[in-house]
Write a structure and sequence with these properties.
Layout: E1 12-16, E2 22-23, E3 39-43, H1 52-55, E4 77-78, H2 83-89, E5 93-94, E6 98-103, H3 109-120, E7 126-130, H4 135-144, E8 152-156, H5 160-170, E9 174-178, H6 195-212, E10 215-221, H7 233-237, E11 240-245, E12 252-260, E13 268-274, E14 277-280, H8 285-288, E15 299-306, E16 309-321, E17 329-332, H9 336-350, E18 357-363, H10 375-387, E19 395-397, E20 400-401, E21 407-408, H11 413-422, E22 427-431, E23 444-448, H12 451-456
Parallel strand pairs: 6-10, 6-11, 7-8, 7-9, 9-10, 17-18, 19-22, 22-23
Antiparallel strand pairs: 1-2, 1-3, 4-5, 11-12, 12-13, 13-14, 15-16, 16-18, 20-21
The protein binds thymidine-5'-diphosphate and magnesium ion.
């Protein structure tokens, strides 16, 4: 942070990147939120401006009214051209909303937004503000993506005052700021990307969006530690926070909502990066599932839910004799403590002990399964590996396991079964309460009430 311009009378202070609190002295722990190692050096803003921005943000709307007086039809949504993105947003882009898209550099944020803005430019006025790439670069990418570019307006600018001035003239319906870390305001003296710059610039942009009803996408880079570079408070200032994730070596990308004032969180959109940009993957089961030709032991397919969709995933387990004093318990993509509980249930209620075995469990395809519906699949995978007895390749398993050894029903059982049938599965081991009343054509349902009944399937 050295070498940045400090005006006359500028005062050095420290900002917490976690909660945005200010301190006059550096310390290892933030006095406000208690986070460690989050204070970074910054320069104070001239006192005259303090708070001014936020105060007049809603000045035009400051009037007390009854909720019933305010029309619910105010919420106008625009389709973005990507139905995967629309779903993650909660059914399209809300007018006047501010959406933060975070992700590692190179993951495809600019590509996603260029394609989205290209499609949107056909129905609303659009402005793409790039602070990172030259107009030539942006234009080349848009052309390579085969987007209709005639109506997409472009601005290469990093000063927020100038951006807002030009935006006032252009009056875009949708605006992209790529990226917020490159934007600065002349009202703050610290360097672009610093906590106070990001916060103040974002505040001015958010205020503009709310005042004019412009939908705004902010791009934010994520640091190695997985946090948005810049203040965490950026997340509090916006309506929606989406993360764009995936391995750079792998062509699949997942767009996840972690905060949404206009829809459900944990909704997921799946894309594939191909040579002409991003393509939607509307059937994610197909990519997370690796079908084996022949049955292998330790592998079980389950139906989980991601947001509002059922998704088939494979759970693999490896159980092998341990030579360590403490046998290993390792769960990847699943909760480690849950695995320990399930092994204890197996021992207590079925007499199947694994205390002398290392147990590894993995969700294939880098998925995370956080719901308890995976319990029964984990139990069956571990047992299948222990006994070296494969389960049928056309079987799906789901259900929650209780501490008393009972198998409990899970939500949306019917929908999960239908997804399994659609992907060619012909048998399903499910909690008794989830067994369909009317038989589903082509599906043999194996209802179980206890873990003992389920494990009996592997000894018969
Ligand atoms: P980009 O959108 O620039 O990433 P971000 O804005 O998140 O930093 O995407 C860059 C990567 O995407 C780059 O490594 C190349 C790849 N890519 C493709 O594979 N196909 C394409 O059509 C495009 C435009 C990019
Ligand atoms: Mg980019």
């Amino acid at each position: 942070m050295s070498g940045k311009p400090r005006g006359k009378g500028a005062r050095v202070l420290f900002n917490c990147t976690e909660c945005g609190a200010q301190a006059s002295k550096w310390s290892g722990q933030c006095g406000a939120c208690g986070a460690w190692n989050t204070l970074v050096e910054d320069v104070a803003r001239p006192a005259g401006n303090r708070g001014g921005l936020k105060l007049d943000a809603f000045a035009t709307a400051s009037e007390v009214r009854a909720i019933s007086e305010i029309g619910a039809d105010d919420e106008v949504r625009i389709a973005t051209g990507f139905s995967e993105l629309d779903r993650v947003l909660g059914g399209g882009l809300v007018q006047g909303s501010v959406v933060l898209i975070g992700g590692d550099p190179g993951i495809g944020k600019s590509t996603l937004l260029t394609q989205t803005m290209g499609a949107l430019s056909q129905v609303v006025s659009t402005l793409y503000v790039s602070g990172e790439e030259s107009p030539r670069q942006v234009s080349l990418r848009a052309r390579r993506l085969g987007m209709p570019v005639e109506r997409l307006r472009l601005l290469a600018e990093t000063e927020v005052e100038r951006i807002l001035l030009l935006a006032d003239r252009e009056k875009p319906g949708v605006m992209v700021i790529d990226s917020i870390q490159t934007i600065f305001t002349s009202q703050v003296q610290s360097a672009p990307g610093s906590v106070s710059q990001v916060r103040e610039s974002a505040a001015m942009l958010v205020q503009y969006a709310k005042r004019t009803g412009t939908a705004l996408f902010l791009v934010g880079h994520v640091t190695k530690e997985g946090m948005l570079a810049g203040p965490r408070i950026l997340e509090h200032m916006v309506d929606t926070v989406l993360y764009f994730e995936g391995d750079v070596d792998n062509r699949f990308r997942v767009l996840r909502a972690v905060k949404n004032r206009f829809g459900a969180v944990n909704e997921m959109g799946v894309f594939a990066m191909v040579d002409h940009g991003l393509r939607e993957v509307s059937n994610p089961s197909a990519i997370f599932l690796s079908r084996h030709e022949e049955a292998v032991s330790g592998s079980v397919v389950m139906v989980t839910r991601e947001g509002s969709r059922p998704v088939l995933v494979e759970i693999q387990s490896l159980v092998s004799e341990s030579h360590a004093p403490n046998p290993r318990r390792l769960a990847v993509g699943l909760d480690q403590n849950r695995l320990a509980i399930l092994l204890a249930v197996l021992q207590r209620h079925c007499g199947i002990a694994m205390y002398d075995q290392d147990v590894f469990v993995n969700v294939v395809g880098g998925m995370r399964v956080s719901e308890t519906a995976a319990d029964l699949a984990v139990v069956m995978a571990a047992l299948s590996s222990l006994r070296n007895r494969p389960l049928p390749v056309d079987l799906v398993v789901f259900g929650e396991v209780g501490l008393a050894g009972e198998v409990r029903p899970v939500q949306n059982g019917q929908e999960r079964l239908r997804e399994a049938v659609q992907h060619g599965f012909t048998q399903a081991m499910v909690p008794k309460a989830n067994a369909p009343r009317k038989p589903i054509e082509g599906l043999r349902v194996i209802p179980v009430q206890t873990v003992g009944e389920a494990t009996g399937f592997l000894s018969a």
